[in-house]
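Folding follows sequence. Below is one example:
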Amino acid sequence: MKSFKTLSIAIALFFIIVLAGCQSKQVQHLASDVCLLSPGVTQQEVLTYLGVPNERRLNEQGNEIWLYFQVHKSFLRKTPFIGDKLGDEDCDMVTVTFLNEAVSSCVYRAYTEEQMKEMGRMTPDGQ
């Protein structure tokens, strides 16, 4: 009887872990998704292709600019508590500029951790 309880608990824990791993999260691949954008694509289409931007700005001419970021952390960087001191972190950034609610330009750029520090941004959220 005791082994049945142990087995039941083990099976329940297994299913909890499996279900936690199946949590749905939108996957974004900026490097390839940016190819879907070209001049003339509407803001609604950009939202469909890339989702909600990480930042929105206005340039000097008053045109809207949307910024998308995607951070890539190495396995060691993901280590709890000490990860900040280990491994490396890179960032992809897409800048979409609109003119009259249609894409006028789209620029993709990959940044190393050192380049992000030089720009005064460690990660897209400014940490």
